[in-house]
Amino acid sequence: MLQPKTRWDIFCTVVDNYGDIGVTWRLARQLVAEHALEVRLWVDDLRAFERLCPEIDIDVAQQWQQGVEVRHWPSDWVHTEAADVVIAAFACQLPSDYMDVMAEREKPPLWMNLDYLSAEDWVIGCHGLPSVKYKSVQKFFFFPGFQPGTGGLLRERGLLDQRRQFQHDRAAQRQFLQGLGIDRAADAQLISLFAYENTGLASWLDVLAADAMPTHLLVPEGRILGDVARWLGVETLSVGALHVRQALTVQVLPFVRQDQYDHLLWCCDFNAVRGEDSFVRAQWAGRPMLWHIYQQDEDIHLDKLDAFLALYTKGLSPAAAEATNGLWRAWNAGLPIAEQWLAARNHWPELHKNAEAWCLEQGLQADLAAALVQFYLNWI
Ligand code: TRH
């Protein structure tokens, strides 16, 4: 274990949505809880943070949350002492005064860029390499990833045991769902839907409504609600709305705290997720899933999608792999997915087994927080 006095600064600019703050908040908490570090989390947008952590006071410059010192990162930066380890999340630009302070330290800090998650092979070659230098301070690339040789994935200690226990405890699940106002019919499959706007959604809802098996679809408040409302033929949808169309029940949920969102994923038979952090959490849930990847210029996100699919489907039979590829690619192209959904459903038991096997395999890697700490130990 490191000396408790080792101080870490994590810098987060909220570009859009919740992934930037979602990842850095999770990391900061874990560094405190599992590695006894002193962590300051600098965030430029406390309103986005408040969605994930309702205790956040958006009006104060400094506060403590779950052992993490949360600092509002103001546009007019105030001169501050630099930490021993400095993490710039997702290539955010540190304040120039802070960079000077880093360089003036007797022993310069370890400066790392925590990068975006990608399953592409080149990540292995770039993880841990030196990046730019500012005066005497060297920056390093730190890449999360799925393969040995990368920085791994965020995974709290004991998470998978906790998840399994919960999935074996029907009473606990019922109680959790009831707390969110969800009354699940015994024979209904439970699906969660967290996605960006998607023109393919209507085709999925059509097929779920026409299905012999009832479905209860849980939609946390967010960008996909407009598409859901259009399909239902209603003007707006707000939290608590519940609509039934044939075999499909659609329910709008509030945006919940991160740990509650985990429990929601653990309850569901199938999870549609997006971006980065919810995508990883759905993998820890050990249930079949569908990923809506964050769109990037020149469609470079499609390479990332294919790279992940190649790894994720490698343990599947050719037919189940083809069905998974077909479903994920159609969803990410905004195309109708009715056919692809039905094709994937033909392989349900195999997809379940694969989701759990993938989770187990990924759980064997060092988690990202532990890998960061190890990187620091190797560096000093
Ligand atoms: O919100 P996202 O789309 O975030 C991002 C950002 O767009 C970011 O700029 C981009 O770089 C990245 O995607 C790839 O999706 P993500 O990453 O899943 O983040 C959502 C966070 O919100 C995650 O921490 C889970 C959390 N969450 C809750 O805490 N409660 C909820 O009810 C829901 C639905 C999510």
Task: Tell me briefly what this model is.
The chain has 380 residues and is an alpha/beta fold. The protein has 15 helices and 14 strands. Helix 3 links the parallel strand 5 and strand 6 (110-114).
Number of domains: 2
What is the level 1 CATH name of the largest domain? Answer: Alpha Beta
Give the name of the CATH superfamily of the largest domain: Glycogen Phosphorylase B
Along the chain, the helix and strand elements come as EHEHEEEHEHEEHHEHEHEEHEHEHHHHH
Number of helices: 15
CATH topology term of the largest domain: Rossmann fold
Structural class given helices, strands, pairing? Answer: alpha/beta
- The best one-word shape is globular
CATH architecture of the largest domain: 3-Layer(aba) Sandwich
Low-pLDDT stretches are none
Small molecules in complex:
2'-deoxy-thymidine-beta-L-rhamnose
What value does the Rg take, in angstroms?
21 Å
Percentage of residues in helical conformation = 40-55%
The proportion of residues in beta strands is 15-25%
Which assembly state applies to the chains in this document? single chain
Count of beta strands: 14
Query: What's the average pLDDT?
Result: 96
The description of the largest β-sheet is:
8 strands, mixed
Strand arrangement, largest sheet? 3-4-2-1-5-6-8-7
Distance between the termini: 14 Å
